[in-house]
Amino acid sequence: MISSKPNSLLKSVTNNSFFLGLGSVANLVLGLLFAGFIIRYLNESRAGFIITIQAIMSISVMIGDIGLNVPALRRLSILNKNNDLKTSTELISSLFLINLVTALSFVLILFCAFPYIFDISKISDSYHNEAFWTTILLGLSIIFMQLTKLSLPVLESNQRYDILTFLNFIFPLLTSISGIIFLNIYNTMITVGLIYFVFRLIELISVFLIFLKVLGKFPILCWNWKEIKSISGFAGWNFFGLLGALCTSNFDRILVTYYLGSSNLPYYAYAQRICSQIHTALSNQVRFLLPMLSSFEKNTAEKIRDIDDRMRWFIALISVITYGFCVLYGPQILSIIVSPEFSNKTKLPLYLACIQGIISAQIISFHYYSWSLGKGAPNALTQFLNGLFVILSMIILIPLWGYVGASIAHLWVILAVIFNGYWVMKIISTDSSFKITFSAYYSPIILMIIWSFSALVSESIINGNLLGKFFISILTLIIGLISVWLIETRCFSKYDRWSTLISAFRTLIKQFRNSKAF
After folding, report:
1. How confident is the model at residue 474 (pLDDT cuts 50, 70, 90)?
2. Angle at 151 between CA 150 and CA 154, to 5 degrees
3. Which of 213, 263, 294, 356 has the fewest Cβ atoms nearer than 10 Å?
4. What distance in Å separates the CA atoms of residue 318 and residue 457, rounded to the nearest whole number?
5. What are the respective helix, strand and coil percentages of the chain, to the nearest 5?
């Protein structure tokens, strides 16, 4: 168990979480802002076309490493602990070759498929040339993004989250600011394509320079089949799971475009993007668990049992607060960024996405536990089955209820969380029970109920007064946190959840003052 008093593991957890949090917030805010301005300046149909191409880009980046990214991270963490720089460098070089080949293949497929993509997007033929050159620029960006992805296992296995924070902050910042400035002057799809092309190229060059700093040299291209083979089983499960994940994060957008055209896609996709960006931000808060726990090898399950209850409680608490603010202020912010009409059409998908987000956040820790144990099956089967059910449901619901039906289809995540959580907890400890596992969610559920009441009160009494809603939500949050404190200190004090959270904050403040965190 992590003691409520600061120790080396708590310091490491706090430090890594702090750095990842900075980058996640930057990605969340700036990414959503830029996406909103794309819709505002280009209209729904052209923005929908770009979202469709971006979905295809994400597909290539997600599966371009054929599932090797997570097992490679776990393997590199072990090699780094054993100071085996030679083998780790050869593994990185092998990953580079795989990523390069798959990226070039995806780009070729994208260029060949352009006529079909343009046809199902149902946008005006007058935009044909603009859409073609935008596809060329975004397609070339796939190569840069796929190779840049190598920075994740390399930096995370070395626990260089300070560098990851820099990458996650500076390039979304530059992309968003440039996008807002140039879209205001040249409101074309090509402008968006050029911005992505330029900054993905600069990011790739930066990653190469960082490799020189972290590894001492850039890996010479070579092939180590022994290392690739050793992680291929884990990679196979991971790739299988990614196919399901693609159904809920990229194939779904293509399906909406197919049924409704690109002009209706932004109403669905923007709400889903908010959910996915918040989910990524929450995941980043604990993603350091994978290299950290993996390095313990045979003692990983014991280390997980030490931190599990408090980790799940923390994620549940933060997810309720984050999505609570999104429910309260999301529609008003969308009205400002895009337009009141867009906000009204996106409101219901946004609320459904927030419900989906709160539930899906509870699967985050289980995923990292399973991966750190080298068990790919629980996550893979959960992701695949959830993705399959979502896509099948969308095929039925989109013709009935349009993009709202597509949003409803994502609620299969409820069963996915239960299924994955039960399986992983049984792997960690055979004597785990549903009652013990669920106790970590009591106080976050109380907070969620209070926040829901706050939303109802704000809508019925304040009547659109943003300042009044802000004060009510802050007051309700304070009341909710007091309730959480009372529940945790009076009923569940033996789990040290609240005291550990306070200790983490104290450790962070102490590190900040001493500048050791930087």
Report:
1. confident
2. 95
3. 213
4. 22
5. 85, 0, 15
* Backbone conformation region of residue 464, classed left if phi is above 0, alpha if psi is from -120 to 50, else beta: left
**Choice between 221 and 200, residue whose per-residue pLDDT is larger:** 200
CB 264 within 8 A of CB 256: yes
Residue 490 confidence (pLDDT) above 50: yes
Closest CA to 270 of 253, 246, 247, 287: 253
- Alpha-carbon torsion (124, 126, 132, 134), positive or negative: negative
Tokens read off for 431: 């004597």
Residue 245 Rama label (left phi>0; alpha psi -120 to 50; beta): alpha
Residue type, 456: L
Query: Of 150, 198, 151, which Cα lies nearest the Cα of 174?
Result: 198
Is the pLDDT reported for residue 30 higher than 70? no
In degrees and rounded to multiples of 5, residue 186 shows phi and psi of -120, 90
pLDDT in tens, 60-78: 777 777 777 778 877 887 7
* CA Rg value for the chain: 23
DSSP per-residue letters across 397-425:
HHHHHHHHHHHHGGGGHHHHHHHHHHHHH
Burial of 481 (0-12, 13-18, 19+ CB in 10 A): middle
Q: pLDDT digits over 367-380, tens only?
A: 888 878 878 788 88
Rounded to whole angstroms, the maximal C-alpha distance in the chain is: 67
Residue 126 has pLDDT above 70, yes or no: yes
| Helix extents (H) in 362-496 | 364-372, 377-408, 413-428, 434-438, 442-457, 466-490
